[in-house]
Amino acid sequence: MNTVIYMDYGRENVISDKIQSILNEQINKEFYSAYLYLAISAYFDEIGLKGFSNWARVQAREEVDHGMILFDYIIERQGSVNLTPITSPEARYGSPLEVFELIYSHEKYVTESINGVANMTDEECDLATRYFINWYISEQVEEESNVDDIIKKLKMFGADKASLYHIDKELLTRAYKPHTYNA
Ligand code: OFO
After folding, report:
1. How far apart are CA 133 and CA 121, in angstroms?
2. Would the CB of 34 count as within 6 Å of ligand 1?
3. Is 44:53 a contact under the CB 8 Å cutoff?
4. Whose CA is nearest to atom 3 of ligand 1?
5. Which of 7, 69, 82, 150 is deepest in the core (most CB within 10 A)?
6. Which of 59, 70, 64 has its CA nearest to residue 104?
């Protein structure tokens, strides 16, 4: 067994233990989201929906960015990053509509979690983290709305194979742009 030596560099946290802990939990949730989208991407690829697969793969990369922005923030605030195990997502999913409904409820869950971070910053009177977390609040609004748009299209046209083919082509155009925190 390796011995880990922690050096005391005399750094003092400028975030409270409660804030540090909830931000670390949020890192885990963002990386779980990346895992979930990667699993969904692989599933869509297997069933021949390359555009849906691309959409989910791009989303996975954005989720890694969300996790890393939190990671960098904790370091910037002289806190400690605590990386915990990531749960395995399912490997098999249903129809595109069922998958996007699942994604929607997952994003609602993440929104609740971000709201929990915001509430905690209020309780802890941590204005800097409150300001920081606003970026995530608006990011969640955008994500829920994007997923909702796709659900609407799938409900309207998705049962028809030709339309599904066109939606798949449209989702193939989604390109990854690194997400950075610009407060
Ligand atoms: Fe990180 O926003 Fe989705 O989960």
Report:
1. 9
2. no
3. yes
4. 107
5. 150
6. 59
